[in-house]
Amino acid sequence: MALIASRSPMDIPILEIQNLTKHYAEVKAVDGISFAIQRGTCFGLLGPNGAGKTTTMEVIEGIIPETFGDILYKGAPRGESFTQEVGIQLQNTELPLFLTVEETLESFRNLYTQRANKKSLIAACRLEEILKRDNRKISGGQKQRLLLAMALANDPDLIFLDEPTTGLDPQARRHLWEIVENLKKGGTTVVLTTHYMEEAQNLCDEIAIMDHGHIIATGKTNTLLDAHCKGASITLPGTSIDSGTAPLSTPWFRLSDGRISIQTEDLDATLRELVAMNIDLSRIVVSPQTLEDLFLKLTGKALRN
Amino acid sequence: MFTRIWTLFKARNIEFYRDRSALGWSLLFPFLVIAGFSLIFSENSQKLYKAGILKTKTADILPESHHLISHPLIQAIDISNSKRALSKLRHHQLDILLAPDTGHYWINNDSTKGTLLEEILLGGGRQTTGPFTKQVVTGELIPYVEWLFPGVLGMNMMFSALFGVGYVVVRYRKNGVLKRLSVTPVRPWEFLTAQILSRIIVMLATTGIVYGICTAIYGFTCRGSIYALFTIFLSGGLAMIALGLLLAARGNSEELAGGILNLISWPMMFLSGVWFSLEGAAPWVQTLSRAFPLTHLIEGARKVMNDGAGFHDIQWEIAILLAMAFICLTAGSLLFQWKKD
Q: From the CA of A127, how many Å to the nearest CA of chain B?
């Protein structure tokens, strides 16, 4: 108790999740997960579809009730301050029909006591050119930027982004990453779910990888990469290796598209081994290991299965 | 709190105003109904029966056939082809066929209307009234269209309330707008209040516009207190919006919501006395009709517009409608869900 009492408010994690569990009738969507998020960081919740990321987010956001567990915002149970100080971008939200981008944004700003500066918000989310446009006439990337602006309407201390770049083209995705980077620079805490490992590697300071409602790995992104992703990832056509092939000294996995993935910490040795086995290497792809490979290593399956 | 309600109220009004098809329909629909009925009940509005009159070879017509041909409730249709006329009689397109020079007439034995016209034709020569004495109702005549007018206004309000609130709330829930609002400081009652205020103003405005246009074109008058009329429309509107919110308190299927709203609105449209009086209807039908807010709205509006009533005369209708609004709104608020479980 003395320890806790001596902590300054800034030392207290902005969000602490303890043994959070969400059970449906026959499904354990979230099964006893715990983590803490420090102020001003970007925390990534990663995992394939159905891992429990969105359920976790929605329980924390207060959309669905938890079965049990504790959710502490700034060291206390969530209250009125949580809804006032937190920004949320949900997955698959439709915008109000017949309203313009500016009217939508203005409406959301007016729902809060504390409001972000309108001009700064429009500039930050690059909405200048579409302000007068009807919500029904904006592109997917513009819609995501508007949804993000709506989530920032109250100048939040903490913002939840649930798969904000799903379905976007690479350019729109890069735009959104830049906005999130700027948020981080401004001191806003970001909680992000994604199944794009590249996104997590680029944006997140800390990550938790989820699968089947559990957290299977958590830590600082760089630490996890250093610890588990030192080597290289080799991808080969599906017919290169089969059950008749002599066993490799390093484990290999078959991806959902049929290709073979080999994770190795000694690229030279593995390549020599493949050559010795007379495997056709004409279509080999070698790349540094990523979080995607870490997930493959931990679960034996690819993230986007 | 008031800022949030005002924001949601304003956003909903903008949506309604920009949804030109919905706005246009809410103004056009009652006007079309009144215009249509006005046309239907203008020239031959009182003609309930059709008598085919075969063209005579000579100009001689039996005097006894005159009262049938010129009867105000009977539409006399001149026909030259007797074969075609008999075919129409067989198919109930005519109720009676008469050759007025010879006195021959034909009826379809399966037609009750034909039997009634036969009675009229055969009684045509009677000169005395017998034991009966005719009395005439005095007072200002109220044409059917004018009697219908408050019902059509009420019906338009009903559709606007049920579909403009109930259906829209379900659509908001289905596409995630409500879920998004649920994670803002907006509380359910604030959202519901904004919807009610927005819709009641829209309803009263459209009703006022239709009322103004129809009274200008057709010369309808409000014989009673215009303030009482406003109050009955206000309380009726609130009751039906609250009913719409209750029906939309849960669920996210637009198809199911549409079905439920139709299930409620169609019986209400036919059993609330919009088109005809329920005086002769079965007792259970009359009892059922008392459960519909539209019944009380129309009764109150007709009392004011047709009979010249004031506040005092429609206090029960207003009280019942406000009670219905309170009950439906309370139940709707308690059952309301931002998102489907």
A: 20
Question: How many angstroms separate the CA atoms of A251 and A235, rounded?
Answer: 13
Amino acid at A103: E
Q: Which domain range does residue A252 map to?
A: 231-288
**Residue A301 maps to a domain:** no
Tell me if the pTM is above 0.90: no
The continuous run of DSSP H or E covering B37 comes out as helix B20-40
- C-alpha B312, offset from chain centre: 25
Q: How far is CA A239 from the centre of its chain?
A: 33
Tell me the β-bridge partners of B75.
B50
Alpha-carbon span B259 to B170, nearest angstrom: 12
Buried b (16+ CB within 10 A) or exposed e, A230-262: ebbbbebeeebbeeeeeebeeebbeeeeebbbb
Amino acid of residue A109: R
* CATH at A88: 3.40.50.300
Nearest by CB to residue A93, choosing from B8, B176, B185, is B176
Contact A130, A161 (CB under 8 A): no
Q: State which residue of chain B sits closest to A81, comparing Cα positions.
A: B185
Interface contact B330, partner A, CB < 8 A: no
Which residues lie closer than 8 Å to B233 by C-beta, 6 or more apart?
B153, B154, B157, B203, B204, B207, B297, B301
CATH number of the domain located at residue range(s) B49-125 in this protein: 3.40.190
Q: What is the pLDDT along chain A (305 residues), one digit of tens a residue?
A: 444 455 566 678 899 999 999 998 878 889 899 999 998 899 999 888 788 888 999 999 988 889 999 999 988 898 888 889 999 998 878 888 888 999 999 999 999 988 888 898 898 888 888 999 998 889 888 888 899 899 999 989 999 998 888 777 788 788 888 888 888 888 889 999 987 888 888 889 998 988 889 998 888 888 887 777 777 888 888 776 766 666 777 777 777 777 888 878 788 888 888 888 888 888 888 887 777 777 777 776 665 54
* Amino acid symbol at B245: L
Distance from CA of B340 to the nearest CA of A (A): 10
Same domain for A53 and A130, yes or no, is: yes
Contacts of A93 in chain B (CB under 8 A): 175-177, 179-180
